[in-house]
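Researcher: Structure prediction, please.
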Amino acid sequence: MTISIADLRQDYSKAGLSEADSAENPIEQFKIWFEQAMSAQLTEPNAMVLATATANGMPSARMVLLKAFDERGFTFFTNYESDKGKQLAANPQAALTFWWAELERSVRIEGRIEKISETESDEYFQNRPRASQLGAWTSEQSEVIPDRELLEERLEHFREQYGEGKIPRPPHWGGYRVIPSAIEFWQGRPNRLHDRLRYRCQEDGSWLRERLSP
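Model: Predicted structure follows.
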């Protein structure tokens, strides 16, 4: 049986999102939802789409993993010399999207980007599995390579170089923080009349909460 893409649809009815039941601070609301996503044992609830753009506005998006969040913003780690690193250097704005299908929820975050401190990046790097540390040295992220054999050869090179000793953080690898200017919480509802609450950061640092039409 052939299924038309146009006929694919899902009705949402698991929950609602009201102003009365949501936190006044979006970071606190994100914490509530993120903890619920973890409790639901979703596969990688910290997976998120990271959207960036070149200096002339050409957009690009890919999946990355959230590794920390607090009142300062949302942190992820990558190679500074990758395509996304180059785009963030030229245009330090970004957007994040979380999609938790089993909970019929999504979160969108928009804001400016800054590199976290070298100390923070060093601390996180040293807590990574050793294989991941070696991987950060091995991959010249986003560069064209002839075959996978090159990766295996580079990995073996760095295994031999560092032996059983401490692996330092590569100078081209570290963390970015998205400092949010807007955060939207989306809860699926029946008949496509979804709940959308958007928080916008005001000049004094407070948050304005608004309901958006679906």
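Model: The chain has a mean pLDDT of 97.
Researcher: Thanks, that helps.
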